[in-house]
Amino acid sequence: MNFPSPFYRWRPHPWHGLDAGPKAPKEVNAFIELSPFDLVKYEVDKETGYLRVDRPQRSSSQPPSLYGFIPRTFCGERVHLLSPKSTRGDGDPLDICVISERPITKSEIILTARVIGGIQMIDDGEADDKIIAILHNDYFWHKANDLSDIPQVLIDRLLHYFSTYKLTPGKEESTFIAGVFGAEQAWKVVDAALKDYEETYGS
């Protein structure tokens, strides 16, 4: 039997086994862990690659976009240096929020997205940037090439979600938004995360 190339006889690990995308850092693959309809926070288990239940959403906020990570990225020293208010990278794959006109209700999917900006977030001192991207071939958003090309209300929803999604009554807040940035800075962050991954895990 002739198999396509590449062919995976077993399911690849979504962080280490998938590709970041042939046009990274401007156009990337994304593995989606959360849809805007999820009331439970799911996260890829680093050992098995399967989705693990992390926690129920702690407030009434729901993710305003698809949310996941870019494969073969790692938030290490290079990502930290692009986030002056952080003390280190968070040691996780680089998070990505993907905007789509059509509702996508499934998670644990792979898609291609155009990077247009990002949110510089600090979580317990660690750089925890959120890349913002547009679903590839989304005709509604095809002219959006930078954060300035999308309505401010969408950015405000993302900022509100990430400002509140870890809030716990009675506990001191450990996260804050240090700023937002456009496409060129976002490409630098993605590139830094790709190089941090290669240095940590190899090519």
Report what the structure shows.
The protein is an alpha+beta fold. It has one domain (27-198): Inorganic Pyrophosphatase, CATH 3.90.80. The protein has helices spanning 77-81, 152-164, 183-201, and strands at 27-34, 40-44, 51-56, 66-69, 88-89, 95-99, 109-123, 126-127, 130-135, 175-182. The mean pLDDT is 93.
Structure described in brief:
The protein has 203 residues and is α+β, with helices and mostly antiparallel strands. The chain is 18% helix and 30% strand.
Total DSSP helices? 3
Mean pLDDT: 93
β-strand percent reads: 25-35%
Strand order of the largest sheet: 1-4-6-9-7
Architecture (CATH level 2) name: Alpha-Beta Complex
Q: What is the general shape?
A: globular
Q: How many structural domains can be distinguished in the coordinates?
A: 1
Under CATH at level 1, the class stands as Alpha Beta
- Backbone structural class: alpha+beta
What is the gyration radius calculated from CA atoms?
16 Å
Distance between the termini: 30 Å
Low-confidence stretches: none
Would you tell me which CATH topology applies? Inorganic Pyrophosphatase
Query: Which percent range fits the helix content?
Result: 10-25%
DSSP, total strands = 10
What's the CATH H-level homologous superfamily?
Inorganic pyrophosphatase
Order of helices and strands: EEEEHEEEEEHEH
Largest sheet: 5 strands, mixed, barrel
Per-chain topology:
Blueprint: E1 27-34, E2 40-44, E3 51-56, E4 66-69, H1 77-81, E5 88-89, E6 95-99, E7 109-123, E8 126-127, E9 130-135, H2 152-164, E10 175-182, H3 183-201
Parallel strand pairs: 5-8, 6-9
Antiparallel strand pairs: 1-4, 1-7, 2-3, 4-6, 7-8, 7-9, 7-10
